[in-house]
């Protein structure tokens, strides 16, 4: 952290955000590598006893949403006292987390996008079907264009989950013992938009996506716009909570 002192005040928040993204990806690189390996080796093992009809990358990408929320909330909750003690202001930390979230979501989203396209080649070579489990049926991604269109929105979804995790993490630190309750209104909204975008049950408690039933007629463009709006609202909420956090020593 001493290197922050050598940066100008307007720039060090962005340098820190870049550093957090790099260190976060580095820290979890083995987890990410394991997920990639399992996504490709899993179908090979399953093909010995059953016909492959579902995309394993679809499930891997959904796990990535929860993982992203966990990274955002966990990093923020742990970083607040350490960063402030190192001389960083709460406003600088909020800006750094914004950069972190944007870069993390792009990086993981690009990985998922590439993974789904590579999986398409893999499945075609093996004669398997790259299907997606919808609410009641399995829908096949019939063309490269459909696969690319399906995968292209993952960076945005990861950004929404990152913003949700950051808001909950900041609230959990700000209001010890009760801040985590912010997940009660946040998760149904994020889950429902996820459900509406992909027309699938969200990866998690399915009942939390109940609002999705009211979004069936919105259309893809309207749902995407809503996801952008919710991500922005959650990011602003996380920032407002963070800059209002009182300085205090954490209990041992």
TrEMBL record:
The chain crosses the membrane at residues 27-46, 66-88, 95-118, 152-173, 180-198, 218-242. Keywords: Membrane, Transmembrane, Transmembrane helix. It comes from Glycomyces algeriensis. This is Uncharacterized protein. The lineage of its organism: Bacteria, Bacillati, Actinomycetota, Actinomycetes, Glycomycetales.
């Amino acid at each position: 952290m001493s290197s922050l002192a050598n940066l100008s005040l307007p720039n060090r928040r962005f340098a820190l955000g870049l550093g957090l993204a790099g260190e976060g990806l580095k820290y979890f690189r083995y987890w990410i590598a394991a997920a990639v390996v399992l996504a490709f080796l899993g179908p090979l093992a399953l093909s010995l006893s059953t016909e492959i009809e579902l995309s394993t990358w679809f499930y891997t990408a959904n796990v990535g949403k929860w993982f992203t929320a966990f990274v955002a909330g966990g990093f923020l909750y742990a970083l607040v006292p350490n960063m402030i003690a190192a001389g960083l202001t709460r406003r600088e930390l909020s800006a750094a987390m914004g950069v972190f979230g944007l870069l993390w979501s792009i990086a993981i989203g690009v990985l998922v996008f590439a993974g789904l396209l590579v999986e398409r080649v893999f499945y075609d070579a093996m004669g398997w079907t790259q299907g997606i489990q919808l609410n009641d049926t399995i829908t096949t991604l019939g063309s490269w264009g459909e696969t690319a269109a399906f995968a292209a929105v993952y960076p945005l979804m990861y950004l929404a989950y990152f913003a949700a995790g950051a808001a909950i993490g900041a609230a959990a630190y700000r209001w010890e013992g009760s801040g985590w309750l912010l997940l009660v209104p946040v998760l149904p909204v994020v889950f429902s938009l996820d459900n509406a975008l992909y027309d699938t049950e969200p990866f998690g408690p399915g009942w939390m996506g109940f609002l999705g039933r009211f979004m069936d007629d919105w259309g893809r463009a309207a749902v995407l716009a809503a996801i952008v709006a919710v991500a922005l609202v959650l990011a602003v909420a996380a920032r407002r909570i963070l800059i209002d956090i009182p300085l205090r020593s954490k209990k041992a």
